Amino acid sequence: MRSLRWVIAATIAGTAACSSVETGIPGGSGGGGPAADGGTPGSGVDGGSGGGGSADAGAGGVSDAGPSGTTDCDGLPPASLGTMVSYAEQYDSTSGVCGLPAGNGHGVMAHFVGSDAYPRFTLVNPSGGLNGRIATGAHGGVFPLTSGFLEWSFMQFRGTDEQQFIDAIDDSGRPQGSGRNFFFMYGSREEVFAADVNGGAALAGTIHVEGRKDQHRVMMFDATGATRWGPRDLPTDSAIFGLGVDLNGRALVIQDGYAQCSGCILAQWFERDGTSLTGSFTLIAGFSAGPATWFETAPLIGGGLAVRRMDADRSDQTQGFHSQWLVTVDSGKDTIQAAPDWMKARPDTNLALARARAAYAVLPNGGPGQPCSQDLELVSRSGNSCAKWTLDLAAGRTCDTLELRLGLDGTILQHLPFELESNRDGMGRTKTCTLRFWAAALK
User: Fold this and answer.
1) Which of 102, 250, 301, 327 is most exposed by smallest CB count within 10 Å?
2) Which residues contact 90 (CB under 8 A, 6 or more apart)?
3) What is the residue extent of each domain of the chain?
């Protein structure tokens, strides 16, 4: 049974660069086997003109809970997060978009803002100045690299197929690398990307290969945009529910397994050269979906992935998702463990590698009607809390907060809630889109 699918054009650092929501994954129960229980929804409690950056006089409304004193936390917390800088750009809020940012290894940020519906990115440097701008087609996105970004974009229709491309750009948006690498997606399009934090990206979905039967496939691109391997046929021709790349450059594809058993979610590892490492195996058994459910991954220190289920209240929701950590998967193996207690105790969060990949930054998803502040936590490899900071947005009120992110160089990226943005025309149509950041704070 194929579920209705929609794709959010979004950028992330260290995780999937395009998040996909599965609307109505077939429900079911059943269990047993080596896989972990899938849980139930909610059970764990991605331009215009005139931009400018400014440095905050203080730390940007940051309060520090201090280090925990645990031994494996020694040397992990920074002395401070440094000075908060902000960059604001105006856009037409009736026709445009103000979305989530991504940060690369040089501290350059792709600020998602534009006055039309097409994804457009302003490249902001660590001082809050403008480096350049890039624009994609009707759908597209960016993936952060150590230097520059990978840019992915729709180009045109060829019959029922979509022609798309991926290429590398530098910190100012100029082309670099091997030039545009074209590929095709057949309809109805299913397309899930995942960033490789070492440089590159994986793609799984309805990838078209000339002269071969259409079916679900997976491929990887390197840091120049060239094809690293693939496309490879997936042994199970079913919907893609998630995708991830670990620190070893291995890709894990997560698929619908309901044809095999009720409530089954399947997965398969691929080596850095595209060799299948495991074949298809049961990742989660006894899975019950919510109204809109999918999976996202986070790379683990030393290799492997943590998998979280994502739940939206409705299929058109674009922010404020709930999530819970379900399992961890050993790199290149079908060995699955339940998520450790420290992950389970932090629902509605994402994990990003921090402090030279020796720790995790725990990043809140954001959500409606929350206090106008966000907590950022630094956790050791073993799960001990090493430090916690509160990033204040507005005192004494509630906000619809957005996802907190971390750039590859440790820059903290905080998107100002829409209700705190400024009106520029007196009518509420032209508004600001503001990015607050702490450069290299968790490097």
Assistant:
1) 301
2) 48, 49, 50, 51, 424, 430, 431, 432, 433
3) 4-438
Residue 241 CB-half CA count within 13 A: 31
Measured between alpha carbons, how far is residue 26 from residues 171, 188, 284, 294, 390 in Å?
43, 19, 14, 12, 39
Rounded to 5 degrees, what are φ and ψ at 193?
-110, 155
Sheet holding 281-285, edge to edge: 36-37, 281-285, 265-270, 251-256, 240-245
SS3 291: coil
In this predicted structure, what is the pLDDT of residue 48?
A: 32
How much is the average pLDDT of 337-355? 99
Q: Are 74 and 393 in contact (CB under 8 A)?
A: no
Residue position matching structure tokens 């495991």:
278
Say how far apart CA 329 and CA 339 lie, in whole Å: 9
% of the chain at pLDDT higher than 70: 84
pLDDT per residue as tens digits for the range 238-258: 999 999 999 999 999 999 998
For the chain, how big is the Rg over CA atoms in Å? 21
- Burial profile 93-117: b = 16 or more Cβ within 10 angstroms, e = fewer: beebbbbbbbbbbbbbbbbbbbbee
Q: Which residue in this structure is represented by tokens 């204040």?
A: 392
